[in-house]
Design a protein that fits this description.
Low-confidence stretches: 192-198
Distance between the termini: 93 Å
Mean pLDDT: 83
Structural class: mainly alpha
CATH class: Mainly Alpha
Helix content: over 70%
CATH superfamily: LemA-like domain
CATH topology: de novo design (two linked rop proteins)
Number of helices: 8
């Protein structure tokens, strides 16, 4: 009888210690980050799919700046050439490379839209106007998807660094995951110069 009580106490202690280890939370949060990342990729692909239509429409404008158009085409090619795998989430170098390529494409598209304002025929083109609205909607979707991913990563990283779940992270090799960063952090942290004398 005494041996049975000791065995029962040992089982209870082991079960109680495992419920606080966070293993299941790691599994849930890892899947949540993968799901959020898939949505980010989905929206980036949507943007990449719009680019050929935008480029084709802009090419119809006879005097359009060729350099701006070329930068968009090159940025799209670079962004879509990077192979993204589930391991990308755990590799800060690969993640930053992917993020930089997407940032480059976003910048090139922003420049294209800004330059297009100088072309009245292009602005009046209904097809271009529709593509512009789709691109703006896609950029908003990218922002929402990235924010959801950032939240999922934050939850995962908190559990990976908190006690006692950090012990589980060490035992099973769960590393903190990289999050999105601002590409031009130094530039945006510098306040703009305002000169009212002009």
């Amino acid at each position: 009888m005494k041996r049975w009580l000791i065995t029962l106490a040992a089982i209870f202690t082991l079960t109680a210690s495992l419920t606080g280890c966070g293993y299941n939370d790691f599994q849930r949060l890892d899947e949540q980050t993968k799901s959020a990342w898939s949505e980010v990729l989905n929206q980036y692909q949507r943007r990449a799919d719009l680019v050929p239509n935008i480029v084709a429409t802009v090419k119809g404008e006879a005097n359009f700046e060729q350099e701006t158009l070329t930068k968009v085409i090159e940025a799209r090619a670079k962004a879509t050439s990077i192979q993204v795998t589930p391991e990308t989430l755990n590799n800060p170098e690969a993640f930053n490379k992917f993020q930089a390529a997407q940032g480059e494409l976003g910048s090139a598209l922003s420049r294209l839209m800004a330059v297009s304002e100088a072309y009245p025929n292009l602005k009046a083109n209904q097809g271009f106007a529709d593509l512009r609205v789709q691109l703006e909607g896609t950029e908003n979707r990218i922002t929402v998807a990235r924010n959801r991913y950032i939240q999922a990563i934050q939850e995962y990283n908190v559990i990976a660094r908190s006690f006692p779940t950090n012990l589980t992270a060490m035992v099973f090799g769960y590393q903190a995951k990289p999050s999105f960063t601002v590409a031009n952090e130094a530039q945006i942290s510098t306040p703009p110069t305002v000169d009212f004398k002009k």
